[in-house]
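Hey all, sorry for the wall of text incoming. These are the two entities for the joint prediction.
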Amino acid sequence: MKINTLKNRIIFTLVAFMAISCSDDFVNVTSENESADNYFNSEEEYQQALIGAYDLLQATYLNVMIGEIASDNTLAGGESANDVIGFQQIDKMTHNPLNQQLRDIWNWMFAGVNRANYILQYQDKTEFDGRTQVIAQARFLRAYYYFELVKFFGAVPLVIDKPLAFGDQFDIARTPASEVYDQIEADLIFAAENLPANQAQKGRITSGAANALLGKAYLYQNQFSEAAVALEKVIAGPYMLVTDYESIFEPEGENGTESVFEVQYTDEEGAGFGCLQCSEGNVAVGFNGIRNFNGPTFDSGFSFNLPLQETVDAFEAGDIRKDVAILDIEEFASQTGATYVEGYEHTGYYNRKYIARKGDLNTGDANLTNPNNYRAIRFADVLLMAAEANFKKSPPDEGKAREYLNRVRVRAELDPVQLSGNALLDQIYKDRRSELVGEGHRFFDLVRTGRAASAIDGFVVGKHELFPIPAIEIQLAGNNWEQNPNY
Amino acid sequence: MKRFTCLLIVLFGGIVSMFSQSIAVQGTVTDENNVPLLGVNVLVKNESRGTTTDFDGNFKIENVKSGDILQFSYIGFLPKEFTITGNQSLNVQLLTDSESLEEVVVIGYGTQAKKEITGAVSVVGSKTIEELNPVRVEQALQGRVAGVNITSTSGSPGSAATISIRGISTNGDSRPLILVDGAVIEDLSVINPNDIESISVLKDATAGIYGVRAANGVILITTKGGQKNTDLRVEVDTYTGVQETSRKLPVLNATEYAVIINEAFAAGGQTPPFNDFSVLGEGTDYQDEIFREAFISDVNVNIYGGGEKATYSAGGGYLNQDGIVGGSGTNFERVSARGSFDYDILENLKLSTTSIYTHSNRSTLSENSLGSVLFNAINMAPTIPIFDADGEYSLAEGLGNEVINPIAQIANTYNNAQVDKITGTVGLAYDFFDHFTAEARYQFNYSEVRENSFFPEAFYGSGKVFNISEGRNVVNESTDYYRDYTFDAFISYNNSFNDVHNVTALLGTSVFKTTGDSYGFTGFNIPGNIYENASIENASDVVDNYLNVSNRIFDSRLLSYFARLQYNYDQKYLVSAVIRRDGSSNFGPNNKFGYFPSASVGWVMSEESFFENNIVNFFKLRSSYGILGNDRIGAYGYTSLLDAEGAYVFDNTLYYGVAAGRLSNPNLQWEEQTAFDIGIDARLFNSKLDLTVDYFKRQTDNLLLVPQVSGILGVGAPGAGAPIVNAGSVENKGWEFSLSYKEVVSDDFDFNISYNLTTLENEVLSVANENGFVSGGFFAVGQGEDPARMEAGQPIGYFYGLETNGIFQNATEIANSATQVNANPGDLRYVDQNNDGVIDTDDRINIGDPIPDLTMGLNIGFNFKNFDFSAYAFASVGNEIVRAYDRNEIRTNKTSYVLDRWTGSGTSNVYPRVNIGPNSNNVFSDFYVEDASYVRLQNVQLGYSLNNRITDQLGIRKLRFYVSVNNAFTLTEYNGYDPSASSGDPIGGGIDQGFYPVPRVYSAGLNFKF
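and here's what came out:
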């Protein structure tokens, strides 16, 4: 009898066990990490997402490198003719739609667009003080990333205020460049109106940055009057040219009075080749660095982006900018006893503004974690753009153009010019090159002013003004887009 | 005739009885381990008389005479005959018959007699494991089981091996499901092979009882337990050995190197750097410096016993293995303890428990990657001595940014992982209503993995990626906790009707939950720059590695119901059907639940009357078909989480924000495999020859893969990524053939031979993403595209590159060929596959794949008197490997094939000229793909056991000494260290970047049982 009771109990227990496990809800598990669909419930969460949107600014190091390598300023360099084939091809204007670096730019800039759009999708979800400022920063960032995209690729798919979901990519067309610019302008006007001229935190976007980028966007569309207006808002203050030109590119010159917009980097966190866009450091600086360098002042790098003799010769005699922009490595080595190895296409010169310097933490991989901020929009650049816009607008204002140009020239310890007409424009162009060499603007300046074909070997008019859309991206978006002309 | 025989016996009986009167014979029957066997049938041949042995294995038979033959038979053992020679006491030892048809095989939630099995199930017993002395369980399977291929991911101590059962059926995680006493085990390194009683490998749809986890095959491991009514038995197994590298690569010596470098510089139009060859001599071969002889030792103690109602066993083991690279820089240490206790609470209520505790400690060096120790040893310039004039490690100047002095690298490597793991099971089985058994089992694992690494300040040369500057030494610490449990409850019903209808039915449910959480920190600037201080507490600028990135916590669950019906008619016609319903939390809300049916049939033709013959003793035809699943993706695989990296700098401070990670895909579901098998099991020649042949075909659809997706979706962001989708299918088909023969020639001599062969044809049927392929792997610096692909019509992970057609001998040949960038005489000539007159990326084709077409295993063993011998060889045919261990930098060293380089028209049509100028010779092509077929003598062992007389006198059961050689030699054409090199990745495996070779081990050991 006793045993029978036990038997029943056991059977009961077994049946009960089976019953307990019968609920299908057991396999409905949610992660403790927030889901992307359930966010933006507090200011904190908006601010956190905004940091995520800023993050991709750091990936623009590649855009800066290509802006130089594609131009007549530099050669690709590197270890060998096969080292980063994408750079080598762009340098020689033999790039094609398979270029990996162009695909990176496409992917990374759209990643920035999506992160900004993620915030903007939920811009009305939760109310708090300062929300408009968050929205304004997000809109500036979206404009910044789209400006890079339209600069490289022309017409690109324009998506506003929502991140694309998987599947959406098959139903989206390339938006004409003019419409993309319209959105860029709208975003920047909003940002300029809603952001302060000074931010408590260095690195935050200001109204000055928004106006400067707006002016630049107008300039790229040849809307010179609008460009002049926007840029002169920046000239009105609070920016000033730094007296000591050399100091601008050293660590102490970061976020100085000349800095209108600056991409912030740090050497605190490690990085690897597996995810270059993940680095918190300026990857370009290591890539530009001196090959196998051993000596004072500088750190070693991969010897890409090497200035040509012609670039060096383009400086006027007495231009103090030359020795800041260009490092004559042979001379430097003979003076200091430093050693280095000549890489591919060795010219004897390095891009001194953005090569690795001693004194940082060198967190591994030290080549990828250089802390040098990228001075994306300098006040000198604004003055030169304003000079160009005033010269080209109708009616032109050569007086202002000369004034802005001379402010930049005087700082470079050169005599002011009294030129007018095309001679003045040529001088603006010349000083623009000398002032900004190594900073990633040259190729796009040549293209937008129609001078690329005469300056760049292999440049084909009607083709190389734009880079090709990566072929695989056309495929992955359902083969609905036409390639840029002649690729 | 019979009467005549009787007459003869009567006639001669009187004479014979003069010296062989009717006598009584008594004795003891034991197994090989001198364990007494209960219930052994003892028959007098040609008479119906007989008896069985008692608890102590004793028997006594009266009224026999000299010349009579006694037959001993017992399930699971080879029968034995014994001729009576006098009034004697017999000690009869029966040998285990691992192939016995009556033996029961673990098939998942139950066992089945081998004879009745309708699926393709292979078993490896403890005896095989004992013969091989494997450090890891996987090594016991390689070449032993047809259809199971084991590839080492490294020869370093404690490194993992990849198990693939019947091919590679997924681009994702192709590991089989492994259960140890019912508990899921992902890392086999924590299992001591000495603890294993048997391993069952479910290769076909039979595995369907495990439903959504069965598609990669299922391996069921049973640990050792005690036997009822046996005295305490103790077994000690130990060995110690010396390991050495099986190969060193021929690299250039300093003089040869200087000649080649000068030639390359001259060819590139630059000044040759070496002026005086006479001072160079041989220089340094860094391989000589890093390869060491290394020790290995292993000791295991096990005890067993049991009484009327309870059985128990316990064991402890200790393994210590140094690495052959860098001395004790690589080491694996494992301490394991095990226990089992079974108790019959009531006659029909049985409790069973097992527990395993393992502690392991592993130190590693960087291996099989760019800049790893062996990679550097091959590429380091032989002109650079290990130490410079000041006694410091020489700098590797001018050798590219990744190649550094490997001796310095070893000295500065601190990389350690410790695992503590507890596995426990407890089960109750209850028999009721005569034919029913209800069983409930609870199995759990708990493990802690603690890893730490330290990178001290070091300068290896200018621009080296491994340089650590002052004050910036790095310490990493991480701890991962994993917990899982499985609860199974099932009822089985077993009955026979009319003696011919045999029915077994099973109905059950299973719940599985696995969770884990991870903690990791990186810190800098350890005071004193020494490893002793290297902890996070002592570091500054500490970064929490999990602040925003990745899933720190996971929770993955499975809820299952299953039913199995087995029926046979008179053990002649066999049918089995299984259905399992699985719900997996890894999949999207639209596809969490799936049904996995499978069925198998068998026909024991030898039971048919028409089949009777003297040659074939047993013949079974069987076939199985079923749907299996694979759910091996991480937890929350279908959803989008805010787990990406979003970090930016304000005010020179790094701020961490949030950002969306992988895109979501709510329709995500399991991979679905359709598995078909047809085979035969046969025994011939008095069951001495055992033959199994199988044909299998497995098609996996809905492959889980992460496709390339459009960048406009934002997948290029740090930590973001494409969703996991179901897109693609793969087919594996092939033949398995295994044959074994054993013969007991005399009491002094028996031998066995077994051979198995597996053919495999792997083909990707479709990849349903937009560009039609998935790529992976790494070949060389600066080469944009991945060398390996998965693409329809090709084997998974095939190598995609240019085909070469010799060397350009002169300018005319170049002029007459398709346009090839930078081509000069002496350069590789590529084939213009699409005949467009230009050599470019469109000319790439399939230039090999890492999947062997054929694998074979051969085992030979014999016992002669007190000696035993076994040898075991393994062969792999038709697998290719990519030679990627040459850095091909201007001044890095080269392997000595460059001595056969092209130096002028007609000098070579294989090896291109050396040249530092622009050339296309380093592009991924079949020049870098080699045939890695090989035959390896995996193990040879010779043992000697003390005679029974001596052991009896000493009061012990067995004492055996042996010597063995593991990985004795390898025949291959491959140039690299080890043709078995593979990372194990389905796409990107088989690329050799300095593979840590599997060591050769000379060892001596003893087995001691009392």
